[in-house]
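Input sequence (287 aa), recorded before submission:
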Amino acid sequence: MTSSVLRGLNLVTSLAASLVLSLMCLALLPPAFALLVALVAAIALVALVLGVGESPVVQVLSRSRPVTDAQQQVLRPVAARLAEEGITISRWYVRRETGKDAPPAARIGREALVVTPWLVETRHQEQLSVDEAAALVAFAIGAAGRTRRRGEVAVLVATTPWRMVRAVTHRIGAALAWLPFVRLSWSLRWVLAVVCLVQSVVEGRAPAGVTAGVLIALTYLLPATTRAVSRRTERSADQFVVGVGLGPALAGLIRRHRLPVTEARLQGLEHGAQHPSSRPALRLVTA
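Predicted structure, token format:
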């Protein structure tokens, strides 16, 4: 499958799961109030697609805030280095809290570039060179795609129910992983899906059984598509970093921190051929 097909499949399944979860929650509310909530949510999503209110939503989703003047001063050489390659960033954010899985830099929506306090602090202390910091930002831009994504923030908001459920189940799974047969039970969850479906059909409650079966099926499909998208995204981001001449800097950073990557990837970053056609002028502008 191509990257576009995998991304599309991952998006559709995430939206479908979030829609099912949202409808289940709305069904618990009084009909008039549920309709009001649905209308407000729909209007908010349309506004986000049009770019209205995107900045505060990005700050909430990424738990970030705009960079201070001092942080902007630290990041100015990085921005200048990126500008040499046609990449202009007009709006920077820094995370308030950094989780263990948070990337050093991430592009969200049309204009937001979110960095971690680690990137700012290590650059300020000169433990991170300008080229290395620029390579991390370029990797984030390459991973996000070279086009400005108009409705990405709206999609992130729309898929929040599914992402919340995944986060909760992962925490519960990690807490209970030490118990006997927990891993075995999780690996055999498809049996539960079949039992729920058959029992619900027999009892005349087919919609409930189908809903449970779909949710369990998504626990197989979404992780698989996510892993496939992550692998292809990494290759695309590496190609972009090499294309803007920052491959050796990123490879050196990876080697210095002894990150678990393949030697083939490091060689590709260090010796990959640059392609001028893959170096478009990217501009993240404020509204």
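Checked by second reader. Residues 273-287 have pLDDT under 50 and may be disordered.
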